[in-house]
Amino acid sequence: MIQLRKDTDLAFFLLRHFLKQPKGFQTSAKSLSESLNLPYPTVSKILKVLNKNSVLESVQGSKGGYGLGAVYEEFSVGQLIEMIEGPIALTACTSSTEQNCVSQAFCGVHPHMELMNRVIRDALMALPLSYLVNKPQRYPKKQEVTAFWKQYFDEGNRV
Amino acid sequence: MIQLRKDTDLAFFLLRHFLKQPKGFQTSAKSLSESLNLPYPTVSKILKVLNKNSVLESVQGSKGGYGLGAVYEEFSVGQLIEMIEGPIALTACTSSTEQNCVSQAFCGVHPHMELMNRVIRDALMALPLSYLVNKPQRYPKKQEVTAFWKQYFDEGNRV
DNA sequence: TCATATAGTACCGTTTTAGTACTATATATT
DNA sequence: AATATATAGTACTAAAACGGTACTATATGA
Ligand code: FES
Ligand code: FES
C-alpha cells in the first residue's frame, strides 16, 4: 500500500495541534494525550523524536512541556516523515548500501527505481510544514501533473 | 520507509525482461525462474497477477507461457503498483471507507493527507511502463520540482 | 525534599509479509 | 486416449515489522 506508519500519521496529527496554537504555546505530553484521548506513551515517544529534530522544543521538570521549535518553519513534510520512519526509499536498495532485488550492480531496474524514488521524495520535500494548516489555493489537475512529468520521462532513449 | 513490497519490486524486474525482448516473445514462468535464479512459486504468482490485469497474456498447456499483453502500453508504473499491492494510500483512511487516525470526520489532517497522497499517486500514474526500458532525456532538478508544487501549495489560506 | 515533567530503554503480543506446498485445469505431443 | 508440461488457484507456515506497554533515569519548579 506504500503506507505511512501509524506513528508518522500521528506525528502529523499532533504537530497540527501545535501549529494551530498561538506562538509560544506550550503543553505537556500528558495533558495532550488526555485531551486527545490517546495513549500517553505513544504520544510521548513521538514528541521526543520531534524535539530531537528541533521541530519542537522541550522544557523538562515541573511546569515543563513541549512547544513549537524556533526553526520549525525550515522543515518540510518529507523531512518530518524521514524523522519518524527513516529515509523515503521505495526499495531497500534505494539510497543505501544494502542490496535488494537480484543484484544491484546488474539489476536493470535499479536506476529507474532511483528516479521513481526521487519523484516521490522531491514532491514530499517540496511541501512545507505550514501546508498542514494552510489550505492550498488549489490542487493541480491530474493532467497538469502528467504534463509536468511527461516532459522529462516520455520518449527517452531505449536502454 | 514508504517501501514497496518485495513482490512489487520483483514485478518490475520481471516485466522489464519481457519489455526488453522482441515483440511476440513468449516464455514459461519455470524457465524464467531458472534463468534468473529465482524461486518458481514466487515468479509464478506475480506473472499470474500481471496476466489477470492484461499486462501480460498467457497460453496454458504444453508449449504455453507468458508474453507481453496487446494493450500493455496503456498501463503506468502507478497502475502496476496498485495491481500487486493494492491502492496507493498513504494512510488507511485515504481513498477508502476505513477510519484511521482519531476520527476521519474531525481529523484536521485528513484533507491534507488526501492531497499528499495525490501528489505521490499522480506522479506515479504519470510514468508510463515504457519508462522501465526508456532512459529519460534528463531528470528535473530538485529546484524544478519544488517550483512546480510551490505554485499550488505555498501561501494558501490558513485553515 | 518532593512532585511532575521529559528522556531513554527494553520487552512482548499482533499483524503483515515472504516463501512453500499442494491441487485443479488446460493443451500439445505421442 | 494417455501423458507430459504448462498456467490457475488455494492453503499453510516461518520470519519480520509494527504497535503498544512498562519501567527506569534525569531534570526542574515549588
Ligand atoms: S537492485 Fe535496486 S531495484 Fe534491483
Ligand atoms: S482520519 Fe485521515 S488523516 Fe486522520
By DSSP, the count of extended strands of chain A is 5
Could you tell me how far the N terminus lies from the C terminus of chain A, measured between alpha carbons in angstroms? 29 Å
Write down the secondary-structure element order of chain A.
HEHHEEHHEHE
Please indicate the percent range of residues of chain A in DSSP E strands (runs of 2 or more): 5-15%
Helical run tally of chain A = 6
Low-confidence segments of chain A, ≥5 residues, pLDDT <50?
97-102
Helix content of chain A: 40-55%
What is the molecular shape of chain A?
A: elongated
Radius of gyration of chain A: 19 Å
Largest sheet of chain A: 3 strands, antiparallel
Question: How would you explain this protein's 3D organization?
Answer:
Chain A has 159 residues and is mainly alpha-helical. Chain A contains 6 helices and 5 strands. In chain A, strands 1-3-2 form a 3-stranded antiparallel β-sheet. In chain A, a hairpin with a 5-residue loop joins strand 2 (56-59) and strand 3 (65-68). In chain A, helix 1 (6-20) crosses helix 3, helix 1 packs across helix 4 and helix 2 (29-36) packs across helix 3. The first copy, chain A, is elongated, with a radius of gyration of 19 Å. At the A-B interface, helix 1, helix 4, helix 5, strand 4 and helix 6 of A face helix 1, helix 4, helix 5, strand 4 and helix 6 of B. Strand 5 (157-158) of chain A pairs antiparallel with strand 4 (134-135) of chain B. The complex binds FE2/S2 (inorganic) cluster (2 copies). One FE2/S2 (inorganic) cluster binds at residues 91, 93, 100-101, 104, 107, 109-110, 113 of chain B. Chain A binds a DNA duplex (30 and 30 nucleotides) through helix 3.
